[in-house]
Specification:
The protein is of the alpha+beta class. The protein has twelve helices and twelve strands.
């Protein structure tokens, strides 16, 4: 066979369309520009993005970085073909982790990987990322779209986010000021946020329910639409307390629930003692608990159970803290206190004790 008879190979023929990537960059440019803030021009297309900390107004800044994804919540987005909110989740999972340190989110970068780039879906996803950045007050300054045929199935995609923030060296929050007797405030979540979805999906599948049917606990919307309610962004709430100096610690309640996340921000000698009767367990969590016969202890380790963020404050600062948090639009409950491990009623091994859980959350 002659050389001329052999088909010529192309990158597009192997499944990668460079032109589609360029089309996407052009389509999302207005969304990125809408996130512009002091310190950056928020333009896409270069090999790297610049940020000017001095222009952002910092005196003695310490940079804080976080990265995260949204896990198998992506499967729900694909199942109902709705991609407009998942980007908000991506931003929230990263910027909330910055805000609990008392850091102001500055800029965000995203990574979207797929088998074959669908420009319409990717534009929808990144529009959600831009919306999340606007809520958080940070700039979307870049990202990467990777088209990898053979790595992902048709229609599948993966997301990762990267956020960088900064705080003044003398005002960052590390939990070191926490004391016994401090009050634990719980800020309401907007739903299941982006954790526990492997269990949620298993329960939906095994119980014979559909994402397209009315949610049994919220019949005015489809189950899939409810599950795609985006993670709440708590940046303004955290910064409001941090700037007034009334926050001793924060905890973003993600994978591992209250039990795993509160200890990350308090010194090892302390434990948080919470009272499950002081805040309402969301109807969605109660329904999944019933359908999946999930024990209360498992709920506390898997879901946020209605508390998306925890703030720890001195007793004298509770009223001021609640007032500041409600002023940023949050729903707040005093849900417990800090105690020394080994004190009366607190096991020496416990980092978080949730009282009344078995009774109040019983299904």
């Amino acid at each position: 066979m002659s050389r001329d008879a052999i088909n010529s190979y192309t990158y597009k023929g192997s499944g990668v369309d460079v032109d589609a990537g360029a089309t996407l960059v052009e389509a999302i440019a207005p969304s990125a520009r809408a996130t512009k803030r002091a310190g950056t021009e928020a333009e896409l297309g270069g090999f790297g993005a610049l940020f000017d900390l001095k222009a952002a107004g910092f005196r003695d800044p310490v940079l804080v970085a976080a990265t995260d994804g949204v896990g198998t919540k992506l499967n729900v987005a694909n199942a109902v073909q709705r991609h407009d909110t998942i980007g908000i989740d991506l931003v929230a999972m990263c910027v909330n982790d910055l805000a609990v340190q008392g850091a102001e989110p500055l800029f965000f970068l995203d990574y979207l990987a797929t088998g074959k780039l669908d420009v319409a879906i990717a534009t929808e996803v990144i529009s959600g990322i831009s919306a999340g950045c606007r809520i958080a007050g940070c700039a979307l300054i870049g990202g990467e779209t990777a088209e990898m045929p053979g790595m992902y199935g048709r229609g599948d995609y993966e997301l990762a986010g990267f956020a960088v923030g900064a705080g003044e060296r003398d005002t960052l929050i590390d939990g070191g000021k926490v004391r016994a007797g401090d009050v634990v405030l719980g800020l309401a979540s907007t739903g299941l946020h982006a954790n526990g979805f492997s269990l949620i999906r298993q329960i939906v599948r095994d119980s014979g329910h559909s994402y397209h049917e009315a949610a049994p606990f919220a019949p005015e919307q489809r189950l899939g639409d409810y599950l795609l309610t985006p993670t709440r962004i708590y940046v303004q709430a955290c910064l409001a307390l941090a700037k007034e100096g009334v926050a001793r610690a924060f905890a973003h309640i993600t994978g591992g629930g209250l039990v795993a996340n509160v200890p990350r921000q308090i010194p090892p000698r302390f434990a948080a003692v919470l009272d499950a009767a002081t805040w309402p367990l969301p109807a969605a969590v109660r329904w999944f608990a019933q359908e999946g016969r999930i024990a209360a202890d498992e709920l506390a380790h898997t879901f946020n159970c209605g508390i998306g963020l925890v703030a720890i404050v001195a007793p004298a600062d509770v009223d001021a803290a609640v007032r500041l948090l409600e002023g940023t639009g949050e729903t707040v409950w005093p849900i417990g206190h800090i105690a020394l491990r080994g004190d009366a009623g607190v096991a020496d091994s416990a980092r978080v004790t949730i009282e009344a859980m078995d009774g109040v959350w019983r299904v």
